Each structure stands twice: as structure tokens, then as C-alpha cells.
Amino acid sequence: MVTATTIKALATRLDKAEQLVADGAVFPVAGCDGYAVVRNGDGTQMYLVRIAAGHENCSCPDFQQRQKAAGLPCKHLLAAQIVAAGETPQPPAPAATVDPVKLETARALGIMAPARAA
User: Fold this and answer.
1) Which of the four, 11, 25, 39, 51, has the lowest number of CB atoms within 10 Å?
2) What is the pLDDT of residue 41?
3) Once rounded to an integer, what is the mean pLDDT over residues 20-45?
4) What is d(CA 33, CA 68) in angstroms, rounded to the nearest whole number?
5) Domain for residue 42, yes or no?
């Protein structure tokens, strides 16, 4: 049975995997379909990941010591799967900010329409 704790752990792992992808930490291995090298979060280690269905594996300690036995992916495996599937997460768009001085200058120069009355 899948528990809430397991689902929460997987959701956290997926968030971390998406961050690895966004950080450009996943490198498919040229000439070896189904393999990637994934840099860890702080950039100090590289792990070899195999994503071939039914043969998933990662050289990281988390996968070797815990996830493999439980049949669950580590964040590196998830990140490699995201890249292989072409499901690169898009970073959120930055919030738009408007400099009021620049806005009034643009209106005064006729670049922008005058503000409408409320």
C-alpha cells in the first residue's frame, strides 16, 4: 500500500529533480541511449543514471542504500527521466514591475497612452 508519507517523499524528490533540470545538471551520455550523468544539488558529485525501463539505476548513495530496495526513484533518476521525456519544467515568469517615473515619462513623450480615468 502506498502511504501518504511515501507520496510526500516522492513529491519532494520530484521538486528537487525539477530544480536539477532547471539548473542544467543533467547530461545525457552521448552514444549511450538510456544513460545520463546528473550533478548533485551542490555540484560536488556526479552520478551515472540508467533510465531504461525495468533497469533503472543511479550510482548515488540514496538510491543504492534506500530507494533501490523500496523500488522508488531518487531525484537524479527523476531528473534524467524528465530530460529524456522532453518535459523540461519552465521557470516561473518574473513578476512585472513598473517604475512610476518611467511610466509618466513615457506618457509625457506620447509613447504610451495617458492613464484612463477610473
Assistant:
1) 11
2) 84
3) 92
4) 21
5) yes
- Is position 60 within any domain? yes
Buried b / exposed e over 18-56, threshold 16 CB at 10 Å, is bebbeeebbebeeeeeebbbbbeeeeeeebbbbbeeeeb
Residues 49-59: tens digit of each pLDDT: 999 888 999 99
Among 55, 90, 61, which Cα is nearest to 75's? Answer: 61
Residue 67 lies in a domain: yes
CB 59 within 8 A of CB 48: yes
Domain total of the chain:
1
Strand partners, 46: 39
Can you give the pLDDT at residue 93? 47
- In this prediction the pTM is 0.70
Edge-to-edge strand order for the sheet containing 57-58? 26-28, 35-39, 46-50, 57-58
Domain contains 102: no
- Over the chain, what is the mean pLDDT? 83
Q: Is 47 helix (H, G, I), strand (E, B) or coil?
A: strand
Residue ranges making up the domain that contains 49: 4-84
Q: How far apart are the first and last CA of the chain?
A: 58
